[in-house]
Amino acid sequence: MILVSHFFFGFIFSFLGSITPSMLNMTALKISLENGKKELNEYAIGVSVVALPQAYISVFLTKGIVENPLIIETLEKIAIVIFVFLSYYFYRESKKRKIKIETGAVKKENAFLAGITLSVLNMFSIPFFCGIVATLDAFNRFSFDVISVLFFILGAAIGTFYILFLYGKSANFIQKKTGKLTKDINIILAILTAFVAVLAVINLFF
What we know:
Blueprint: H1 2-17, H2 23-35, H3 37-66, H4 69-94, H5 111-121, H6 125-138, H7 146-169, H8 171-205
Helix pairs in contact: 1-7, 2-3, 2-7, 2-8, 3-5, 3-6, 3-7, 4-6, 4-8
């Protein structure tokens, strides 16, 4: 059961972390619209391949951090601030106007390489997974044994692939409805991050 939960955590958080318009999923849209599903899949695989070491590095870093109680308490306080900021950020993003999807040339033969390159450049990924692992550990929902970590990493990679696949598969629909979808999704994420911030405060002080 613990292995399933770790896979689920990796999958759902990587999925939710990439659900709002970003460099990675907007590129998935462009590739799908311009080059087709085959290149979309190659791109998504490229991004997901990089997600594997990114998730592992995050777990490795967090494991060293959580062994120090003082650092844990500090991180929990920082996490509260981060989640409050994210809640405000998503709320603010929900108020913005419709996002325009600009198309640009993405060569078919470079789709996989483009996925790897853009994923490596995505500097938010490692701190994001560090925050997730630290939060799960604070609630005693994460185990650092090798098999559990592998399931978490696998879930993270598959979750990353799946959200990019969905973006590409729904490219035409998203292109027309991006503004409304972005607003709705960001409102939901604003509520979720605010809720996590409240839970973190309760866990820290009570």
